[in-house]
Specification:
Number of helices of chain A: 6
Structural class of chain A: alpha/beta
CATH superfamily of chain A: NAD(P)-binding Rossmann-like Domain
CATH topology of chain A: Rossmann fold
Oligomer: homotetramer
Mean pLDDT of chain A: 95
Helix content of chain A: 40-55%
Largest interface: A-B, 48 and 48 residues
């Protein structure tokens, strides 16, 4: 577990099961970790358990994201891993959606990711080392009815990931997009007895992120999709 | 040319070659047409030539888009065709881009399209009739280096198109996304003698839009891509 | 209808609704048409109705395909349109399928298409003019359970179409792949009253093929998908 | 390295760098390994180095593949990992290719993979345990000019992989398709000093296969792509 070739990590949009599991894995590998969320209160148990540092951020605010990166580097040094895990979701018929809510949803899913990739790039380019992992969803490869704002945000995130990978990989920065296809099991919830492992285990997801971090640069992935064994696609 | 099964059209993001050719084709088929752009001065020749009506709009402003649709219906009656042809583009290394410009680019390429699809849906759903055509680009299916904001906007547009097609087609509204893959030849420019038709002729693009408008609902396309014969992809 | 820029057509894998509708459209546009199938008996009504010529062929036999093209050119002159509409389908659990049947299915869906594209290319390259249309299916873009041989054949067909388009388009030959997504309504069958146009009308499909034949070379499509308005995807 | 949850492996199409590296990794994890190829002479050094067993097979022959699986199970017991790494490639203009060579190429790339997946499924279904890994290529997601037979074979392989994953994953068998995008560095060859790691290191590829074998069933991938950091895509 100690063979991760990076020395520090920032996870944005922390709070969900994925971020918790990833924080634990990175901490157990010895990396200092900052976890950032709009609401850090809910992060207290994770901070106490792992020794990670919690910082507040509104990911859709470019200046706020810059401050987060500044503060993070003050606290844990030069950043080498950035995970963007935030997203905004509004559901409903197109005709009924509130335009302001749609704008905010796309702002969190896509613009916030851009601001984060930008700050990461600025800090990683001088050393030519780092990894940026973006949490995608099936909604980023297929647009479903009644979910147009989420489709917009997650498609945009995927476009950003591919464009950033094309630009940054040859400069030593590994950019990857993880398509999480299915429901993530809330941490601590018992799995279904009838259909074991029919939702994504956050620990299993986090291990996929670690697989990406450990890839040799002669064989980098820019995208991987994961889903429960029983899920059709 | 008179067999278009719709009676009125609004083209948003007019001014480019595609919008001009499309306006001419729709007008010659007898449809009243409104062409909307941020700057309507440049539309004067097209208005004089075709009798289309020009209206001002900032497509990235939800309230402005709603006013445009209201005014359009006052001028030409119930809308049956809406074409979204606006996009925002900023190029450059991720680290050098201005966050505000990125936000504006995504606002025009993607949020403006959402506002337009929403207004179109509100007006077309009661009659269960209409067509919404969205102008995409190769950047919406593949993310290129140094063009991340355009990738984000055009990927988002494609996600919107697919989600909207899934939701609105079964309600009688044809939503389609046209992937324009290559340089569009400016109207009036002589074609290359060495490589004739090596850029997209706006009249040829417009005919593809008409092909979509004429499709029978038992065989609708949600996406078509077009490129010059000599272009590899 | 007389504006098809080609003068003769060969349809391979005739017999289905698509081929019948396409034969009628091409004949009504004045083109001589050869329709080829393994069993030509069933083509008699279509021959009598349209004046098309029926020829026998086993599309999975390379030599037979070459003879078909030779004979076709003897009968109707230099070929300018070739449509490949044959496919082989075996369904069932992977473990239960007969290897020989799988080989035959892939032979008809994919190898037969290659032999036909090759014969078409040989004949069209000298004049730098022609169109090759390949009938695909949803199974060519998504692999479904219990249908692996059809997935193999239709994926292979799509790969052939894309490779052939990249090679032959710059030489003046338009290659396009039509993804027919849904059930095709048998010719003559009444449509559902509850859900009108919920299966693909063969006449509507054929009109899409004609749209492709009429595209200007500055804006060629290599792929288009069509499905009934009520079909989710 | 000993945490691979499977106990035996068969690699078909051995000989290339990928198979060699994978054989070493699996052997060092303690698994008995059979490596199969049309020509086993070239496998002697690998057999001597690793203790793997070499068997002859013509992968495009269904009966031969069945015999290979029978013999493999006699030698190393119930099979739990099968890797299909064979492919047939013919290059050239469509008009110049030999139909028989095209058929053989598709036979090795695609039909041989089907026969192998089928034999694997028959043996793994009773226990509901196993993994099948298929070596794909960029040619399986994009059709290039002058390479239509390889496009057909690799597209077909990808269709098979997706269809098989949909069918077999819910029965406990992990099917995955690895898109190897770029040139694989021959084993033992010095890497470029100017552009280090600009071709895929076979050891790095093999580690990706191991990552897949170690995935938890609540988060299985059916596809992953890998390419050198400097490669645009």
């Amino acid at each position: 577990m100690t063979d991760i070739p990076y020395r520090s990590a920032l996870i944005i949009g922390a709070g969900s099961g994925i971020s918790g599991s990833l924080t634990r894995l990175l901490r157990s590998a010895g990396l200092p970790v900052v976890i950032a969320a709009r609401n850090t209160d809910k992060l207290t148990p994770l901070v106490e358990e792992t020794g990670a540092i919690a910082l507040k951020v509104d990911a859709s605010d470019a200046a706020g994201v810059e401050r987060l990166f500044d503060e993070t580097e003050v606290r844990i040094g030069a950043l080498e891993v950035v995970v963007y895990n935030a997203s905004g979701r509004v559901r409903g018929p197109i005709a009924d959606l509130d335009p302001g809510e749609v704008e905010r949803a796309v702002g969190v899913s896509a613009l916030g990711a851009f601001y984060s990739v930008q700050q990461a790039a600025k800090r990683m380019l001088p050393t030519g080392k780092g990894a940026i992992l973006l949490t995608g969803a099936t909604a980023g490869v297929k647009g479903f009815a009644l979910s147009s704002p989420f489709a917009m945000g997650k498609f945009a995130l995927r476009g950003l990931a591919q464009s950033a990978a094309q630009e940054l990989a040859p400069k030593g920065i590994h950019v990857a997009h993880v398509v999480v296809d299915g429901r993530v099991r809330p941490t601590g919830q018992e799995e279904s007895e009838e259909q074991p492992d029919s939702s994504l285990d956050p620990d299993a997801i986090a291990r996929t992120y670690l697989d990406l971090l450990r890839q040799h640069r002669s064989a980098w992935s820019w995208e991987i999709e994961i889903r429960p064994w029983v899920e059709s696609f």
